[in-house]
Amino acid sequence: MRTSDRVYEVLREEILEGILEPGVPLAEIEQSARLGVSRTPLREALGRLQSDGLVTLKGARGLIVSELSPQDVTELFEIREALEVKAARLAALHRDRARFEDLRDEIRRSGEMLAVDPSRRAFYEQTSRMDAAIDEAAANPFLIAALRGVRAHMARIRRLSSDDAERLSSATQEHLMIIDAIIEGSETMAAYATELHLHRSLASITKSLNVPPADAPPSLADHRSRKRIH
Question: What CATH fold (topology level) applies to the domain 70-209?
């Protein structure tokens, strides 16, 4: 792996995990010293992160970790809906029935773990596997690439929102509705179930973040919770 690739992966993970919080400056001298690399590969990595929308140029402050606003949340869900609804439709057309039946059983088990797993690790790992299975069944590399970018930002939003066991339990049932529709090969129901899930997720996240009124500062950077919601 090239040095710039390694630096990119490290910084990207730190941003998604919330180690590097929204608004944090990414000065080249400090970051190159911290990561033990020269400034050339660091610049390449920062350029890629800027293209991803995870890093932005902020006047005299230079490059910073991109901040998130209530408008960003809404707009990301608009894009997410367009992409994930299409992916669910394609998955229903091309699915491997046996694989999704196995996935359904896994989702049920991860839902049962919510009561005894405060970290919610099993839930989020299962969600990632579900996304991967739908992406593979959709079999559209351009769609998958677009979804990867959106999901990176969604991971950050989840870490800025609060954890809600009741919401996660409902999300499990919504995931099962999506999988059932895909197993049956129903494009219409897969699309509907996905739309329903995303609508409820957006409502929950908006409530959790306590979105400020229109005349208040838009940044959500002060929400420092490390917990997630789906």
Answer: Four Helix Bundle (Hemerythrin (Met), subunit A) (1.20.120)
